[in-house]
Every structure is written in C-alpha cells, then in structure tokens.
UniProtKB/TrEMBL annotation:
GO MF term set: DNA binding; metal ion binding
GO biological process terms on file: negative regulation of DNA-templated transcription
Protein family membership: Belongs to the FrmR/RcnR family.
Official protein name in the record: Copper-sensing transcriptional repressor CsoR
Source organism: Candidatus Phycosocius bacilliformis
InterPro entries associated with the record: Metal_Tscrpt_repr (IPR003735), Metal_Tscrpt_repr_sf (IPR038390)
Amino acid sequence: MKRMAHEHKDPTALVTRLRRIEGQVRGIQKMLEEDRDCMDVVTQIQAARAALAKVEAEVLRRHMESCIEGAIVAGDAEAQRKLVTELMTALTKSI
C-alpha cells in the first residue's frame, strides 16, 4: 500500500527547536571537555532530552492530524490500520 499524500505544517518552528537542541548538545560536549561537574552535565543532558521529547511529541501530533486524520476522513480503513500500527510501533520502540 502506498503512503497517503498529505501536507505537513511549516516545519520552521521544529527546525528552530532542533537547532537550539543542537546548541545544547554542543554545550554538553564542551562541559565534558572542560571536566565540569557531573551533575551539571547530567542536568543539561536531561534538559536536552526533554526538549527532544517535545519535538517528538509535536511531530507525532502533526502525524496524527495530517496522516491518520486524512485516512479517517477518506474512510480508508486499511490505511487507518496501517498508520495506527506504525504509530504504535514507533511509540513502543523505546519501551
């Protein structure tokens, strides 16, 4: 089955967030190079991970709004099942 055609919202905000996260990761690298306090490094790692989780949540939300909702509106039961299965697989990979 081919993927359904859909439109994604402007990715600019997500790209901006990812660039900020990229800067956080570079900062963590620098902290390690400077032998900074371990707990300060861990705190920054947790902040970067939380920021990345927010980006992931937004991408998933957009996926549900564009792809899954599109399959529902189109009444395409096969596409709905496939997309929901893909979503569940993605959500449970890290568990």
